[in-house]
Amino acid sequence: MRGNTLLCFFLLPFLCINHNANVFPANAYLLGNECSMLLLLKNNLIFNPTISKKLTLWNQNEDCCQWNGVTCKEGRVVALDLSEESISGRLLNSTVLFGLQYLQSLNLAFNNFSSVIPSELCKLNNLRYLNFSNAGFEGQIPNEMFHLRRLVILDLSSSISSPHSLKLDKPNIAMLLQNLTEITELYLDGITISAKGQEWFHALSSLHNLRVLSMSSCNMSGPIHASLAKLLSLTVLNLSNNSMSSSVPDSLTNLSNLVILQLRSCGLNGSFPKDIFLMPSLEVLDISDNQHLMGSFPNFQPRGSLRDLNLSETSFTGKLPGAISNLKHIDISYCQFNGTLPSSMLELIQLVYLDLSSNNFSGTLPSFNMSKNLSYLSLSHNSLTGVLPSNHFEGLKNLVIIDLGFNFFKGTLPSSLLKLPYLRELKLPFNQLTGLLDESVMTSPTLEMLDLGSNNLEGPIPLSIFNLRTLRVIQLNLNKFNGTLQLDMIRRLSNLTSLCLSHNNLSVDIYSRYERDPSPFPVLRKIMLASCKLRGIPSFVKNQSALLYLDLADNEIQGTIPYWIWQLEYLLLLDLSKNFLTKLEGNFWNFSSNLMLLDLSSNQLQGPLPFLPRSVNYMDYSNNRFNSVIPTDIGNRLPFVKVLYLSNNSFQGQIPESFLNASSLLLLDLSRNNFDGTIPKFFAELSSTLRVLNFGGNKLQGYIPDTLPTSCSLQLLDLNDNLLEGTIPTSLAYCQKLQVVNLRRNLLTDKFPCFLSKISTLRIMDLQLNKLHGSIGCSKSRGDWEMLHMVDVAFNNFSGAIPGALLNNWKAMMRDNDNVGPEFGHLFIDITDNYNPKDFKDLLLHLDKTIVAKLAKIVANVPRSILDEGSSDTVFFPL
Fold first, then answer.
1. What pLDDT score was predicted for residue 797?
2. Which long-range contacts (CB under 8 A, 24 or more apart) does 310-313 make?
3. Which residues are within 8 A (CB) of 615 and not within 5 positions of it... i.e. 6 or more apart?
4. HEC-encoded secondary structure of 235-296
5. Is position 442 within any domain?
């Protein structure tokens, strides 16, 4: 028996029956050994069996060549695919994996190894395909990897958001590539290479078989070298998100086999070669996010190869060409294209995605009803006009998003738009649409966003809107809707996150008519109900823990601001202005808040200055009845404030010097209070950052400090109606951006301030009701008052005639309003007692509005789960 056993042992590799047709009996022993190694590998890996689709099913009772992820050939394991297996940790027993000597393909992509690449990888010297993309490997790529001379495809890429990253420093990219002479596809995206143009181009020049080169986000610098065109086999070239800071060489047109060219966000400049658009094989061209890259379209060939075109955020200009019929994806948003949209748009039968937003297109909208596959259409922020014919959109059953906002479209809302079966977002804000919203057309079963804000729509809001159960965003603000709307209606919309009905002629009833209705209110991020005749704060707001924006301005709300409103943890914007609120409930001095915009202006609030949230950027407490001394440390409490209005109250005492510590201040308005003492020292020091300073209408005494720095950034200085004396500070001439100077109604004793003529931006100068003296005249050498539109020197002690030469210098006063610019309207010179204070007040109010810039979306410190990404509104950073 013993002899027979030994004989069987020696003959087993030749006599055993193998059930795998790909494995020859002669290699069964070898395969059995490799199967054992694979089982040992499995036992040494850390993975989640509930997610794994391969390793979990490996069974020692089965032939390993039948296992998912394992490929055999002639009795040997030649390919191993363990991608997306949730493997974590290190390759604990790497000798097991790297003992598979016949492996030609190894794929460990999309795992989380969190370790360096093992140096033993070089033992797999038969590898032709290696994929470690997004596998979690980090650190320096090992030297030993350079010995895999047979590699044809190498993928070490990782996404930008990956917490792990590989680097190629010492050794560098040249050492990696010098032995990979057979490589055809090379993916190194996201690897920190930090090589300069000459270095990495020289390293690539010997790879004559290279078909795919993808090296995006590698921290490489340029310029793009013309020798890249020697890689004649290239079909894919992706160098996006690197700092090339160069032009695009004409020689790239020699890459006659190129199918995909991606140079997004590379800092490209100069003029883009037109002939690249006409390359015979090119299907995808992405040169977006290169703001200094110029160019224009060529005349496309009628049957060109280009299918996917992205020029977004470049400086391309000109008109759209006629022949563009084969394109499927077009994004030329945020460019400088102009003219009318060509009639060839009718021929875009393959079109799936079209974004022409933020250009200078004019004329009417062409029909897209031949583009049956169209899913995305954006033409917002242009100058398109005319009506929107309903038949332009009929048959677009695949349309998901349409954005035609910020144009000049007129007429009624096309009924066909709200009947599209898969439409999710309909955006037409800031147009001139009129008429009623038909109750019967609100039938789109998938609609998530309805944005018709800032139009001239009228009549009642159709109640059928509240039957669109998929709605997330309703924006109907700034129209002429009327009638009464029950706020309870929104209970039907469980997905609603944004409700914007501000500034219509609506009466929104906040009191429940369905007290027995058990359905909750939706979880809202934005509630904008300004000027809706609420007469109270809706009670359901108290439970809106995810609320970001709350605007209840101009609603005749009386009484107390409740304490709970400050407990809304993520609230960023709160506007309760223009109501009849009298006090704040509770003590807020030490209350923590995330508010960034707070407007309590134009109420009847009284007492001491209320709480100051440290996070605030914009705060307006103006037009109330606050009557305390401002805390001396107020500037320490407002480290991020940019705009602060405390005007038209009864604050008293001296203006605190601690405002100097509010170093982010751009606008400070303390006007029309009872402040006394002298102008504080911070006036001069903050002038290098402040743009607007208004201390008018107080009881300030003493001199105006003449210590303004050469870096002065003031655009408006208002010290009117105080008790200031002495001279007009000559250092005001350093404020080269100054537009308005108002020193009216003081006790200044000085001559006419000719030195201000050097300020080319100065538009308004009000010196009325002082004790100024001497003649009104300036030599031409002083300056020419280039932009001065209004001068008021009435009620002073000036003598003599006004020189004609001086009047001739004030040429801006002679211009038509169209030439001056609409922001100031018709202004005038007043040297008598005919001055109308209201004109100046309106001007200052308008200037304040222009300084407070468009609100920009705040996302910092807010969980992504509660952000409403679908909203087309923007909320704020002033200035």
1. 93
2. 310/264, 310/285, 310/286, 311/287, 311/335, 312/288, 312/355, 313/288, 313/289
3. 593, 594, 595, 596, 640
4. CEEECCCCECCCCCCHHHHHCCCCCEEECCCCCCEEECCHHHHHCCCCCEEECCCEEEEEEC
5. yes
Q: Is residue 866 part of a domain?
A: no
Q: What angle do CA 432, 438, 442 make, to 5 degrees?
A: 105
391, with CB counted inside 10 A (0-12, 13-18, 19+), is: exposed
Query: With contact defined as beta carbons under 8 Å apart, do 101 and 122 qualify?
Result: no
Residue 200 has pLDDT above 70, yes or no: yes
CATH number at residue 435: 3.80.10.10
Q: Residue 199 in 3-state DSSP?
A: helix
Residue 122 backbone phi and psi in degrees, to 5: -65, -20
pLDDT in tens, 483-520: 999 999 999 999 999 999 999 999 999 987 655 567 89
In a domain, 103, yes or no: no
Q: Is residue 746 part of a domain?
A: yes
Place of tokens 């109640």: 463
Contact indicator for 259, 284 with CB cutoff of 8 Å: yes
Q: Given the structure tokens 């982010």, which residue do they identify?
A: 664
Range of the domain at 814: 677-835
Percentage helix, strand, coil for the chain under 3-state DSSP, each rounded to 5: 20, 20, 60
- Residue 433 phi/psi, 5° resolution? -70, 145
With a CB cutoff of 8 Å and minimum separation 6, the contacts of 84 are 53, 109, 110, 111
Cα torsion angle, 774, 778, 783, 787, sign: positive
Whether 96 shows a pLDDT value over 90: the answer reads: no
Residue located via tokens 């510590």: 661
Q: Is the pLDDT of residue 874 over 50?
A: no
Closest CA relative to residue 108, chosen from 586, 609, 123, 127: 127
The residue among 485, 505, 522 that closes a domain is 522
- Mean per-residue pLDDT for 795-821? 71
Number of separate domains in the chain: 2
Quick one: pLDDT at residue 228? Answer: 85
* Contact (CB, 8 A) for 597 and 857: no
- Mean pLDDT value of segment 818-828: 36
Q: Give the pLDDT score at 30.
A: 56
Tell me whether residue 797 is exposed, middle or buried, using C-beta atoms within 10 angstroms of its C-beta: 0 to 12, 13 to 18, 19 or more: exposed
Structure tokens at 581: 């609120």
Residue 648 clears pLDDT 60, i.e. is over it: yes
Name which residue leads in pLDDT, 227 or 836: 227
Q: Name every residue whose Cβ is closer than 8 Å to that of residue 230 and which is 6 or more positions away in sequence.
A: 205
Distance CA 535, CA 531 (A): 10
| 602: CB partners within 8 A, 6+ apart | 577, 578, 579, 622, 623, 624
User: Quick check: 416 and 393 in contact, CB under 8 A?
Assistant: yes
Euclidean distance between CA atoms 793 and 330, whole angstroms: 59
CB distance 448 to 495 below 8 Å: yes
End position of a domain, from candidates 453, 487, 522: 522
Tokens (6 digits) for 287 = 């040169």
> What is the pLDDT at residue 676?
96
377, 400 in Cβ contact below 8 A? Answer: no
Among 330-339, 763-772, 820-829, name the one with the lowest average pLDDT.
820-829
